[in-house]
Specification:
The structure is a single chain. The model has no long low-confidence stretch (mean pLDDT about 95). The protein is about 45% helix and about 15% strand. The relative contact order is 0.20. A 4-stranded mixed sheet has the order 1-2-4-3. It is of the alpha/beta class. The protein is built from 6 helices and 4 strands; from the N terminus they run βαβαβαβααα.
Length: about 170
């Protein structure tokens, strides 16, 4: 797996963000039986940075916690069949890896939501990474049924890594 992390914020998290994201991404890919080596880009930003992106790309004039920019168009979520028919659109020419897309995480929201929900910064960061990965794999939460499915999958990914809701000091 190729994984690129960039940061455009001075705010840091008290753990190795690359290591945790890589574990969550790997667990998400394994849970969906991804048959390919994959690549994902992750950008860490703040309220102002994600606000600008949310406005530019979604027409929503406010910050959010995470944005997902999928590269793959799935017929059904995590349905990897037929992707090779569009190899030039989905696979990295040099590495041959499936490029899933970009994740943008708002570090300001990692801090505020961890406090609000009563769990650790690590748990919130891992949750946002898992949530975004499911979007990159074609899942959405527009209907109650879709939202329930995503919630179950997010929890399964985090549970598989032993990342719980417990509050850490």
């Amino acid at each position: 797996m190729t994984f690129c992390v960039e940061s455009e914020t001075d705010k840091t998290l008290p753990f190795d963000v690359e290591e945790i994201a890589k574990k969550v991404i790997s667990e998400a890919l394994a849970s969906e039986d991804c048959p390919y080596e994959a690549s994902v880009s992750l950008l860490l930003t703040d309220d102002a940075g994600i606000h600008a992106m949310n406005h530019e790309f979604r027409g929503i004039d406010m910050p959010t916690d995470v944005l997902s920019f999928p590269n793959v168009d799935y017929d059904r979520p995590a349905d990897f069949s037929g992707l090779e028919d569009k190899a030039e659109d989905y696979f990295e020419p040099e590495s041959g890896e499936l490029f899933l897309g970009d994740i943008v995480i708002n570090v300001d929201r990692v801090y505020s939501q961890a406090s609000e929900y009563g769990h650790s910064l690590l748990r919130e960061y891992a949750f946002l990474t898992a949530h975004s990965m499911l979007h990159l794999l074609g899942y959405d939460h527009m209907t109650p049924k879709e939202a329930e499915e995503m919630e179950q999958k997010q929890e399964a990914i985090l549970s598989g890594l032993g990342i719980t809701r417990e509050l850490c000091e």
